[in-house]
What does this fold into?
Amino acid sequence: MSGQFEATTEIDRPVEEVFTYLAAGTNDPQFSPRVQAITKTPEGPTAVGTVFTSTVKDAGMKTGRRFRITEFEPPHRIRWAEVSKNVVMAAEGGYDLESTGARTTRVRIFNVLEGHGVGKLLVGLALSAARKEADAFGRRIKAAVEAS
It folds into this structure.
């Protein structure tokens, strides 16, 4: 079983500025309390093939995550796929950015979660929790970008 959750938010910053913040990839701890630490390989600008390695805490358990950038189209589109092996993982995800004015940007984030092994039994719970939290997640992205 797999499924998707998503959130959309309006950010009071120009699209290029929002894209730069999100493309950095290492800002995730500022808006995602799950992310304990994150690094980027290789150093330098994010591009297709860049890998982000993080430690996240879900349901009281820490896991390691590795995401590879699969599409990168400034300033409108970023896609990733999880390359680590976890029981519940993000098979694909991304940001879609749209300028809605000279200084405003609409951001849509989504992740497609799928379960492996025992994760097939857990993915429904993970999706339910992610969908319930999606709007708050969007608000945290907005607040973090606007504070940067």
User: Anything to note?
Assistant: Strands lie at 2-11, 35-41, 51-58, 61-73, 77-82, 88-101, 104-115. The chain has two helices and seven strands. The first helix runs from residue 15 to 24. The two ends are 38 Å apart (CA to CA).
